Amino acid sequence: MIAPKYAEVIVEVKSASVDRPFHYEVPALLADRVHVGTRVLVPFGPRRVEGYIVGFSETTDAPDKTKPLAEVLDDEPPLTPDLVKLAGWLSERYLCTKAAAVQALLPSGMRAKATTFLRIKTDPPDVYLPGSWESELLQELYQSPNKTKEQLVSEHTEWRPLIRAWVEKGFLEELHGVKHGIQAKTMAFLFTPLTSADLQTALDELSNRAKKQKELLSYLFDAGEALMMKDVFAVTGASSATLKPLLDKGYVVKEEREVNRDPYGIQHAEKSQPLPLTPTQENAYQTIKTAVDSGAPQTILLQGVTGSGKTEVYLQAIASCVEQDRQAIMLVPEIALTPQMVEQFKKRFGDEVAVLHSRLSTGEKYDEWRRIRHGEVNIVVGARSAIFAPFDSLGLMIIDEEHETSYKQDDHPKYLAREVAMYRARQHRATVVLGSATPALETRWWAHQGIVQRIEMPERVRGQKLPKVRVIDMRDELQSGNRSMFANALKQGIEERLERGEQVILFLNRRGFATFVLCRSCGYVARCRDCEIPLTYHKARGLESLRCHYCGFAERLPETCPDCKGDHVRHFGTGTQRVEEELGKVFPEAKVIRMDVDTTSGKDAHATLLSRFRKGEAQILLGTQMIAKGLDFPKVTLVGVISAETSLYLPDFRAAERTFQLLTQVAGRAGRHELPGEVIVQTYNPQHYAIQFAKHQEYEKFFDHEVRHRYTLNNPPFFELTAFTSVNEDEMKALHIARTLEDRLRRSLDGRDDVIILGTSPAPLARLQGKYRFNVVLKYKKFKGVSAPIREAYQSLQGEAQKLGGYLTIDVNAQMIL
Ligand SMILES: Nc1ncnc2c1ncn2[C@@H]1O[C@H](COP(=O)(O)OP(=O)(O)OP(=O)(O)O)[C@@H](O)[C@H]1O
Ligand SMILES: [Zn+2]
Ligand SMILES: [Zn+2]
């Protein structure tokens, strides 16, 4: 092969102005180590920075200015050629820099840092007084040659001028290098190189008192392979003191070897066997298998009610895919919340599965990632970013609970996992399965249009009925004199379960930030007079006010209800803690496990709390949406929803959809096994269609109704939304950038009937961390038709926003506008 002359490198510099590949000469020495996807170190201005090779060429624009690559950082390129392409697509679709796109594909521990080392070139001539900066610096340089200049200067800021002077005088030399973010973890291993004849001699030679040493040596010999030192010590009771003489004599060899950090510990407990499928499951399984085997990219919506046994279909479809030597990715909304899913995968596939999620340490993530890259596993279970798993022959990607908001990344690049999956499916001729009891409206619409194939699983596995849902009108409760947060029916329901030794899940619907104001007598909700958006409750310096997050309108909290003149106006946003207190008063004998952000901050907190509940250590599980999904507890026969509407009054066009999904999912936690389930939903809006359809768990009817709404309002799936947010500490500057952006968009897009520009307005989160935020929202039918003007306007104003001390962000295909 003729070595390519120039490498095209994406450099890790966060600036839109350098968002293109740069040419670097490939030195002959490095020629056979560079590939598309190789990570390199390159000179960039006065610095050295990390970069990725995305291509090669024989020519360059400025041959005399082109510098050579400095270093190749890994023997195996971290990115495969199709991941390099994927990065290119990400930056096109979500308008992020190419460097940011590459970073999104790699585990955070991957990033090496360019740094400077100091070497003594010639000894400084003078002899310095002990204790002087000069003598200390010299001493440090001799003692710790591997310390970087950055480390030295941060530990001893006072040395900075001295170092500079010595470098200038030529006493010190600056060497550029890299410090790796994370190292592969190594552990000490022991083995014996002795043959059996040698062993006998060795044992004879050891003194009779050295019983421990003899035992250790024999143990290692019998093992016949290298064993981890800590395990050997644990089994034989030997210690370093026992080992030392054996090492000295050469009877035993100690070696550091790379090991993988296993985040779940090694639990090769009983392996689970595939269950015989029900006819419905069989049909779903066969459809998916046929799609995977066909080798044509496809997307399938698996619409199965809660408890219909989707997981078993996933497991068997993945097993079949892996048998064909293709790999599979299983995405779950937030892995810490779905320990049961991970457990099932570990049990079915053992070591064949890698687990990727946000709560792993950087090192653990890196190890799991390496196992995937090296082809040691064929299956990955993980949250959103696992969709980037570096497999080279993908067959199947499954997104469970595909409607969940967590599949949209909230940082650049703001990708939607579903779209990434569909892109990778085209690259690999693979199948995407979107599973849900309550699909995203868009997904269900595509199925309606025939773009996505739809499989239904309308019944629960053992034919159990879906739980009966009772909707309780809390206005009536108040009228009949019940002022507590539990309706009488719910109180009674809990009591019965406690008596029968069954379990209860209480769900507090609290999504996002908003706290709205409602009259408990008549259901009146305070809304902005201009925008119709529910007002948000604010309390500052004892003053209670109501604000509109769209237009900024504000008023005092009314003392009496404007509608019924009653004095039961309250702000809503009851915390789990208050519910817990109340439970303690009403049911002093019941044990309650509370799950919310406060009680689940530890690494395994979720899993621990859930397993305690499973074991029956508590009768009531109380939590926020983190308990809404995926849980499967046989003894739960009652699910109570404290207030259904919290999510209904978010300033978000998806509010009804979210409420419907949430209620249906929570209801699905009840009565999944032998015992029949009941659900009690408390609300001040029993007539709202989202609540009514959820009551009967009628997704299809909800879809029909909601899709019409969306059509009239030009919302997704009929239009896609892209939101720009201009942020600045100075309100006028933030506004100025947003207005200018709006102008530019109007100039290039006005007059088109497939585009709607919603003018500049304060963001629903109008002020965040002391910064003002303004939104410009663009609606369009096809991204292709608007991507060029969007890119142009965005990129030109991004720089201007920065000059004004703020920034401009873009969210393509925004799922929620905040
Ligand atoms: N073929 C089968 N035979 C017997 N039991 C099964 C079978 N398939 C699934 N199950 C059991 O049925 C229960 C419900 O299955 P699963 O949790 O997969 O439902 P799901 O469709 O994922 O529901 P959800 O959307 O609520 O998470 C589980 O306890 C599972 O072990
Ligand atoms: Zn308003
Ligand atoms: Zn009222």
UniProtKB/TrEMBL annotation:
Primary gene name:
priA
Alphabetical list of HAMAP family matching this protein: PriA
Q: Which Gene3D superfamilies match?
A: P-loop containing nucleotide triphosphate hydrolases, PriA, 3(prime) DNA-binding domain
In what residue span(s) does the Helicase C-terminal domain sit? 556-714
Its biological purpose: Initiates the restart of stalled replication forks, which reloads the replicative helicase on sites other than the origin of replication. Recognizes and binds to abandoned replication forks and remodels them to uncover a helicase loading site. Promotes assembly of the primosome at these replication forks.
Which reaction does this chain catalyze? Couples ATP hydrolysis with the unwinding of duplex DNA by translocating in the 3'-5' direction; ATP + H2O = ADP + phosphate + H(+)
Quaternary structure annotation from Swiss-Prot or TrEMBL? Component of the replication restart primosome.
Pfam families xref list: DEAD (PF00270), Helicase_C (PF00271), PriA_3primeBD (PF17764), PriA_C (PF18074), Zn_ribbon_PriA (PF18319)
GO CC, alphabetical: primosome complex
Q: Does the record's keyword annotation contain Cell division?
A: no
What Enzyme Commission number does this protein have? 5.6.2.4
Q: Which CDD domains match?
A: DEXHc_priA (cd17929), SF2_C_priA (cd18804)
Protein name (database record): Replication restart protein PriA
GO terms (molecular function) for this protein are:
3'-5' DNA helicase activity; ATP binding; ATP hydrolysis activity; DNA binding; zinc ion binding
Query: Cofactor stoichiometry and binding?
Result: Binds 2 zinc ions per subunit.
Which segments constitute the Helicase ATP-binding domain? 291-457
What family classification does the UniProt entry report for this protein?
Belongs to the helicase family. PriA subfamily.
Question: Which sites bind Zn(2+) 2?
Answer: 528, 531, 548, 551
Indicate whether Ribonucleoprotein appears among the record's keywords.
no
Query: Which keywords accompany this UniProt record?
Result: ATP-binding, DNA replication, DNA-binding, Helicase, Hydrolase, Isomerase, Metal-binding, Nucleotide-binding, Primosome, Zinc
Which cofactors, by name? Zn(2+)
Class of this enzyme: isomerase
The UniProt annotation places Zn(2+) 1 binding at 519, 522, 561, 564
Protein's organism: Tumebacillus permanentifrigoris
- Could you state one GO biological process linked to this protein? DNA replication initiation
